[in-house]
Amino acid sequence: MNGEGKDTITVTVKVFGAHRERFGSEPRQIEIPSNGTLRDLLARIHDVAPQLGPKLEEGLSQGYLYVLVNGRNAQFLEQLDSVLKQDDTVAFLPPIGGG
User: Fold this and answer.
1) Average pLDDT, the chain
2) Which of 15, 57, 83, 99 has the fewest beta carbons under 10 Å from its own?
3) Residue 43 — pLDDT band, cuts 50, 70, 90?
4) 96 Cβ contact list (under 8 Å, min separation 6)
5) pLDDT of residue 98
6) Could you tell me which residues are beta bridge partners of residue 67?
7) Rounded CA gap, 83 and 41, in Å?
8) Entry pTM
9) DSSP assignment of the chain
């Protein structure tokens, strides 16, 4: 069940960098519980892409991976406790460096 007032919502997940090979290059639609958080989304990623979930968590905990919710860095939101809404887009990407 998707959409407003339902038990679940659907978010679009994009993965960039080296982890893209584990997830695929195309964005995926993933269902999580209504009022679910980034933490809930990570748990679902463990289910739908078991080879990727632990790598994302490792990257987040060690600071070499960023999470954007609709283009906003989750560090400036509620981090992993950020509540997601129907049709949000969540992107996991490595920091971009330059010189």
Assistant:
1) 88
2) 99
3) very high
4) none
5) 52
6) 92
7) 10
8) 0.86
9) --STTSSEEEEEEEE-GGGHHHH-SS-EEEEEETT-BHHHHHHHHHHH-TTTHHHHHHHHHHT--EEEETTEEGGGTTGGGPBP-TT-EEEEEPPP---
CB 93 within 8 A of CB 16: yes
Average of per-residue pLDDT across 23-40: 93
Residue 71 structure tokens: 């283009």
Strands 8-15 vs 28-33: parallel, antiparallel or unpaired: antiparallel
- Name the residue type at position 68: L
Residues whose CB falls within 8 Å of the CB of residue 21, separated by 6 or more in sequence, listed in order:
none
- What's at 51, amino acid-wise? Q
Report residue 30 as tokens: 């993933």
